[in-house]
Design brief:
With 617 residues, this protein is α/β, with parallel strands linked by helices. Bound molecules: 5-amino-5-deoxy-1-O-phosphono-D-mannitol (M6R).
């Protein structure tokens, strides 16, 4: 959470580029923003509470000018959302400006120490302490790199820092520990940022920094150092650096709205292409059959993830049970530590995370590794923390997702996991080669089905919007439908701020049905593995609920005389191929929540209190 960026070049003012970078990083948090630049012999900065658009209207960032600058967009951890807590933070002299993504754990003791030495701490943030710590160390060090190394040795926590130091006016210092940081290497321009989209306008040549690395960039040069245990450090040599340099294939368009009003709607409509990329990018990759081998030879299979990625894991679990006859244990990653003591030798953990950064999922991986359990990561982000800490990785290749609510990455995770399931089923001899290939051929057709489902949803949604005059709704499913219902309810909650609750439909009569009264909206997600959900639809209709059955058009349900009071949201046919049903049934809920949010006057790209990547406990 929080996005940082720093840019240095020879002559041009970097402020416009920093603003574009902030727009691309806003998905990481939008509680406040700030920019600092070095101009001549001073560091000038502006910062304030609110998202980028709001703050830009209030403070004219474009009045700032300088060829070296840093910027920050915040998701508040230490200290409330206000102008003072916004980054950048300065030391007492005004010579050092710091932006930070992460959390400094020994914040309280550092604060006491620094205040006792006379430092004037203005904000409630942990970040400001680091600026003052650097100020102290700088006085005792021969170089700023040495001061930085000493200051880093004094802090415990997670960080990516970008730092301006007035006496080195064309350099930006940086450091990374468990928060992402990437260097962009252009010819006469260098940049650092939390994520690739912020760099794409400047260069496609990047270095994914590793934990414990720090250094500086200047317009024509950069140096990377490594912290050593015990507080020392060493400079990386040319060969070590050359090995790290990568070229990325993404274009700046991938990180723009491309004419759409919001990233979320762009990403919803982008799904057919994104899911095609997932399929084409993985189908020939030997990693898929290798992963299937590892999974098939493991003892128990645990799946762990948070939010939308957890819902994708639930789909995987259901498909694995049906096709591969393999039981798996899906566990929300923040709950993993309560059961990790039961890990046994030869168990396997499959960690699913779009960002590859989610703290809870990373912790679950660490717990597993501590217990000698192998980990396979499924992520969308190359070289992310989760990838680095896992034994084996597969990539969804859906391209950058900027909207905070996950959409295209959900279906791309499902695509990859279903491909994997087909390989596992073959590996376990539940499917012969032809049967496996037949499933893969069906999956190849999924992008077309998503397209048709989006078109069908667009037609149905105007009528559905009216049902949400009630503040609450149920989304019920059985079998595979539970995971789709859970994702639908999450989408509605997080961007429309209306309450939507998902439940296994069979469980609804054990309590939740008590809430149902006339016109209460109840969605029934009907999948081919659970025709008995018809009974639950009838129970709800009998209590005068507004029942909307969301199903593949060709799926027949035994609804008898209650048919008339039930509304059917018929999606494209699935031919009872269960693997295709998430692609057919999910888009309705994505589009519905998007349209509802817009109708209610909310910005779906920036749901309140959320950030795209949750890197705190
Ligand atoms: O990056 P991850 O997939 O690990 O993120 C997991 C959740 O934080 C994420 O899915 C979250 O629930 C989103 N708000 C869903 O739209």
């Amino acid at each position: 959470m929080c996005g940082i960026i720093g840019i240095t070049n020879k002559k041009c003012n970097v402020v416009d580029k920093l603003i574009i970078g902030l727009q691309r990083l806003e998905y990481r948090g939008y509680d406040s923003v700030g920019i600092a630049v070095i101009n001549g012999d001073s560091i000038n900065f502006k910062k304030g509470a609110g998202d980028l658009d709001t703050v830009m209207k209030r403070l004219s960032f474009t009045d700032l000018s300088g060829s070296t600058g840093i910027a920050h967009t915040r998701w508040a951890t230490h200290g409330g959302v206000n102008d003072i807590n916004a980054h950048p933070h300065m030391d007492c002299t005004g010579d050092i400006a710091v932006v930070h993504n992460g959390v400094i754990r020994n914040f309280a003791s550092l604060k006491l120490e620094l205040e006792s030495k006379g430092h004037k701490i203005k904000s409630e943030t942990d970040t400001e302490l680091f600026a003052h710590l650097l100020e102290d160390e700088e006085k005792k060090s021969a170089t700023f790199i040495e001061a930085l190394a000493k200051a880093l040795a004094r802090i415990d926590g997670t960080y990516s820092f970008a730092i301006l130091y007035k006496k080195d006016p064309d350099k930006i210092y940086f450091a990374k520990m468990r928060s992402p940081l990437i260097i962009g290497v252009g010819e006469n321009i260098k940049a650092i940022a939390s994520d690739l989209p912020a760099l794409l306008d400047m260069t496609k040549t990047v270095i994914l920094l590793e934990d414990g690395e720090f250094g500086y960039i200047s317009p024509t040069n950069f140096e990377i150092y490594k912290l050593l245990p015990g507080g020392g450090y060493k400079k990386l040599n040319l060969e070590q650096i050359t090995l790290k340099v990568k070229t990325v294939e993404l274009t700046p368009e991938a990180a723009s709205k491309g004419g759409y009003q919001h990233f979320m709607i762009k990403e919803i409509y982008e799904q057919p292409n994104a899911i095609r990329e997932t399929f084409e990018g993985n189908i020939e990759d030997p990693a898929l059959s290798k992963a299937a081998e590892i999974i098939s030879s493991s003892n128990r299979i645990f799946l762990t993830a948070a939010g939308t990625s957890y819902h994708a894991s639930l789909v995987f679990s259901k498909i694995l049970a049906k096709r591969a006859k393999l039981f798996s244990y899906p566990i929300i990653s923040s709950e993993m530590s309560y059961v990790s003591s039961t890990f046994q030798k030869d168990d396997l953990l499959i960690a699913v995370s779009q960002s590859g950064e989610t703290y809870d999922t990373l912790q679950a991986i660490r717990d597993a590794k501590k217990n000698g359990v192998k980990v396979i990561a499924i992520t969308n982000v190359l070289g992310s923390a989760i990838v680095r800490e896992s034994d084996f990785s597969l990539y969804t290749r859906a391209g950058p997702e900027i909207g905070v609510a996950a959409t295209k990455t959900f279906l791309s995770q499902i695509m990859l996991l279903e491909m994997l399931s087909a390989f596992i089923s073959h590996e376990r001899k539940e499917l012969d080669k032809n049967e496996r290939n037949k499933i893969l051929d069906y999956l190849r057709y999924a992008p077309n089905l998503i397209q048709s489902s989006l078109e069908a949803s667009d037609t149905l949604i105007p009528a559905l919007l009216n049902l949400h005059k009630k503040n609450s709704s149920y989304i019920l499913g059985r079998g595979l439908g539970v995971a789709i219902a859970m994702e639908g309810a999450l989408k509605i909650k997080e961007i429309t701020y209306l309450h939507a609750e998902s439940y296994p439909a069979g469980e609804s009569k054990h309590g939740p049905i008590a809430l149902v009264e006339k016109d209460f909206p109840v969605y029934i997600v009907s999948t081919s593995d659970a025709p008995e959900i018809a009974g639950n639809a009838i129970e709800m209709a009998a209590r005068n609920a507004k029942v909307i059955v969301v199903k593949p058009a060709d799926l027949k349900l035994e609804l008898k005389e209650d048919r008339k009071s039930i509304y059917f949201a018929d999606m494209p046919p699935s031919n009872s191929i269960i693997e295709l049903e998430p692609f057919i049934l999910t888009p309705l809920f994505q589009l519905l929540s998007y349209r509802l949010a817009v109708e209610r006057g909310y910005n779906p790209d920036k749901p309140r209190n959320l950030a795209k990547t949750v890197t705190v406990e």
